[in-house]
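question for whoever is on the cluster today: can someone run the full assembly for these? two chains, 1457 residues total. i dont have access anymore since they changed the login thing
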Amino acid sequence: MDSPYSCNRRQRMVGRRDFLWELGGGLGGVALAAMLNEAQAATGPASRNGLHHAAKAKAVIQIFCPGGLSHVDTWDYKPELTKRQGKPFDTDGKVQFFASKPGNCQGSYWPFRQHGQSGRWMSDLFPQLAGKVDEMAFIHSMQSKSALHGPAMFMANSGFILPGFPSMGAWVTYGLGSESADLPAFVVLPDPRGLPPGGVINWGAGFLPAIHQGTTLNSDPLQPPLQDLFPAKEFSHLRGDAEKSSRDFLGALNRAHAETRGANSELEARIGAYELAARLQLSAPEATDLTGETEATKKLYRLDHADIGTFGRQCLLARRLVERGVRFVQIYCGAENTGAKKIRPNWDSHEDLVRDHGYWGPILDNGAAALLTDLKSRGLLDSTLVTCTSEFGRQPAAQGKGRDHNSGAFTAWMAGGGIKGGSAYGSTDDLGAKVAENPAYCYDLHATALHLLGVDHEKLTFYNNGAKRRLTDVHGHVIKPLLA
Amino acid sequence: MIRLPALALLLLNAAVLGAAVDFDREIRPLLQERCVECHGPKKVKANLRLDAKARAFKGGESGPAIIAGQPEKSPLLQRLTTTDEDQKMPPKGAPLTAAQVAAVRSWIEAGAIWPENELERAASRDPRLDHWSVQPLRTEFGQAKSIDDFVAAKLKSAGLTLSPEADRRTLIRRLSFDLHGLPPEPERVERFVQDADPKAYEKLVDEMLASPRYGERWARHWLDIAHYADTHGFERDQLRPNAWRYRDYVIDSLNADKPYNLFIKEQIAGDILAPAAPPSVIATGFLAAGPWDFVGHVETRSDVLKRAARAGDLDDMVTQVMTSTMAITMNCARCHDHKLDPISQKEYYGLWAVFAGVKREDRTIDATEQNRYAADKNRLAKTLSDLNSQIAQLSGQGFELASLLPTESGIDYRTGKITKEKQGYHSGLPVNTLQKVDQVPGVLAIFVPDGKGTVMVAANTPVKGIPATNGHTWDAIANRPLNAQESTKLNGTDFKTKGHTILGMHANSGITFDLPKLRELSHQRTMRLTGLVGFGAGAAAANSRADFTVYVDAELKFQKLKMRKNETAALDIEIPDSAKTLTLVATDGGDGIGSDLLFIGDPKLQMSGAETKLTPADLKRLTALRAEAKLAEASLAKLTEPAKVYAAVPQATVAVIKINRRGNPEDTGAEAEPTAFAWAKHAPVAFGGNELPEGDRRLALAEWITHPENPLTRRVIVNRLWHHHFGQGIVATPSDFGLGGDRPSHPELLDWLAGEFQRNGWHLKPLHRLIVTSSTYRQSSRTTDTKATNLDSANRLLWRQNPRRLDAESLRDAVLATSGKLDLTQGGPGFKDFDYIEAYAPIYNYVSPDKPELWRRSIYRFIVRTTPHTFLTALDCPDPANLAPARMRTTTAIQALALSNNEFMLRQATHLAARVEKEGGNRSAAIRRAFALTFQREPLPTELQAAETLVAKDGLFALCRALLNANEFAYLD
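^ ran it for u. tokens below:
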């Protein structure tokens, strides 16, 4: 598809259809169309069956592990590295990592074993995910264009190392819109410890219309799920009847205003937005209220555990959102490098990998495995693509008791909607330092995900300041060997 | 020699004999038949075309194909004769016959005479060169003499007409938001509506253009395309406390109606143009306005990562300058020649070369003032240094602490042993753990502090008060400058020179001395510690902070917190005779250890005891000297550094720029020299070779951009003004006048405006006046003309004015103006509506907006890149990472929630309710006042009635909240 905002239309909105687009989010502005009694059947099928070809998945849950998850201690089995334990990594002394000179070779801190029918290797850090290898497809040859957290985070999310480009979730909702009449199409669940490196820009809409930016959902059960969903405590009288008479007054005012300005459908859309906001006040608390979940489900996600449970709650919320038609959910497993804490608030294990990965491992392991189990048991896994990535990997050479950044190699995995379980693509060299076979970038991951959603990554474009922009820039290939 | 058939020999002979090969008869048909299929208009393989003379001689990717007179050096012939199958041409069909090859050879040898025909001349012309925006501006416009003439003529040809003029209430509201970004006061509305003067509107326009509110409003538009913010962005999003001076420069320039060409020149090269004029220097804040990655530029120790960061930096600068001034999007040429516009990769990197000598940093504004400050500082520092050495002479030379270590050695944090090796980054070392030092008599132990709770600095010596750190460190504690230390000078004394010593102590480090042992070694008893602590870092560390703390036993004797690079701390600490340990601690100031290259110059234990042996006269002199030294120190501390601005800073050496193949800084090609792009033909584009001084490069570009004949610069700015007055430009892509951009709806009008602009000396205010006094601008937006809607729903022909929604900042300012709380204080540092928590990645927590100090106009908001303001972002306030020539206008439920429930809105609705209650007196008057303030009109009888009912039930607050959420409040007619 071409951008719905062709060159001479993009700065404003004139016709009614453009508006529906804006409001509903992309081509699948069905929800709003219905709300405004607009029969736009033409755009309907797009959201269900993909934009360019039949879709395998209709929703995405992306787990993002910021800080740099060490592939050599987790997904990428490197026996040679263990064999060379303690031997010099850089014999001529020329290599300079992000913050350090390489130390000696350091094998995985956790032993690896083969699992499942596929016999994929996984380290003991992830005992539960190990039981899921036959559902998962690994890309072992991921690389990034930057070894710095900020730019690499932006790259993993938007394909560009600079801020200001639309994130993957924004592109997906721009292309496919929402399937939910009452919830935003792109929802982000940051780690309760804080925002990831680079902040909210990671789920920004860049130059796409702001409706496509990720809506931050607070997973803290004691807070309202959305910013400004309700007036602050001091204004708590603004509920119920008082709120209704205010709304009615505003509605009458706006309708009278619009009647004398017939040619402006923006006004009508804005009236619609207020009605949708009112519905969000019901739908958002409903979607995030976990009291109706069974004890077994709560146990599955270990909601009672102080550390594992917070991420478990994020994963469970993601499932509930997808069930309710949310198109793209991004979950952060880790926050920004703030101050000096005993344990790193993310995967950035420079000084003590056993301590930090040892802390984060069980958190990711339980949450992600529970999510796969739960989605599958509800029949949602086939239509939901689950991905898990980091912004880069870590070095096979030691940095004291930790490891430095490695943009030359890391692993990402996918599962669910349209993915061939137990498969793998690409490989790293003997030590896991650099990619050896079938190099891949986030472009390829993005292209593959879009493909499964029924979108051709080369055709999903938006004109901005002199260029037709794409999520995959001028790169990207669908990784066919991982498709079911 | 190759055997040649007879015919070829004949031909060869003919050539040798001077009988020229006939190009039209022999060569042209050959090229057409065998080459042009792939090297012609349809396919341009290797970017080479052989169907037209100019293109053939220009050559393709591997340079010229034909070198007249030198057949063997001409790739054209080489490709025909090579035996390398991959190289041989043509790749398909039978090879050329020997005769044909020989003909080509003789033709080249004889001078490659190619008579050009008409067809070729047309074929060799790149049609992109005819693109409208790079053509010279029209100067002849027939009968048209005003904006309305141009617009009416176009409408007429479509069978349409202008809409009638809007009523005065609509006009003043429209004008006020357009020129001031604020609603008009109800009293001013009434005065205008009642004004019998036929020139009432023109008077109003002049009044509004003269108000400082105008500059505040229009600066927002300019700062949008400069992607200005008050922090760096990226992971370590630090503050830019001096950036605001550039923001004020933009406001002041607009209010003073500075000629636009000068405005541009100053922003690109003001520091060169008028180095002694502060505003001119501040103007270069433009070049530094965008994001900048501290980690990539400074913190990382990897050169590859540093080069990548610099590449992003130069790309950002070039893109910003060229899109803002000329609406040409250069950055497509970063990896390859621009696909749409005829801009080469070479030209793109030529623009890098223009900016290769500047970096984004805090800089001095007034060189004279700075020099005076530096001179004063040097003089005082020298005085102090002299006094101290006199004091030292009188009281004894002292005992050098650094010299306890062997020359040029350090103590390894990991082992406590002497090391000659310079080391790097240490993270993951055990913190607060004493590493015993056996090899250095007088030193008990070293440690890496993290400042958490109590730290043991020696056996049985727990101390408190070490600031919290990240627990990392660098290199070693050393009797030498630190690894990567850039400077060894403090207060004018270079401690690297003879007679001085250096103890390098990068944050985070601690060292504990054994005082009884030192007494024994120095033969001194009563001692004082002296020395000067400071940074050995380069300019990039300007904002880095560090702390220094001294303990004698467990007692905190000295502490300097959050010391900056340009600060020093003089130590002069009495040590009691009974004390057992002396501990020095360097810590990271809470912002990571990035540039905390701390060292102590001349750390000594002075022998206080020696004083008792002095004569009374010397003792008196010593007392006097100490008093003098105290005074000098106080004066030094009192000196305030002159104001700075975050702007472009010329560097001592200018890096030579090389073309980055595929945009990869690690794969470089030919050198690029400072240049502009040749697509715009108004003036030469090569500014000189790489010997051209830094400043001259920027100046040359600034002159080239503001050249009176530049076809783009004036068109672009008049279109920007038009865009903001109509919600849509004559060219709908205000920052893209290239082939991918929009074409002008009224090309003659655009040029006419650009001409008027020039006649008015490039002043913007006359241009505003011209636009807003036109009938085109004054049209009603409420016309519902079916014919016009069907013909031109996008209103490109301007058959009515466009209704527009307020942008985020205007809406916020309008709410404050309406509630009566708007603080109109002009200029100065931005207001911070957040709590700033210093950390490795600083944290910005937005605070309650219900504070009078936060009620200034939005233009004065301190803008944080990584933590955008959620309320304003919901209203389409752009991410300042993006160049934003036009605001998005989305309509979302999140917006509705923000306007209904955000604390700012609810509080201001409360204030508005209180205001109308007070100003109205009774209920109905209060309601009317609320309508006048928000909508600039009286309520209709039905509205008044509904409002009465609502207010009776839920109070004035409910009404005010609804009015501030109404479409009529958020939209302009």
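summary bc i know u wont read the tokens: Chain B has a mean pLDDT of 90. The longest helix of chain B spans residues 367-395.
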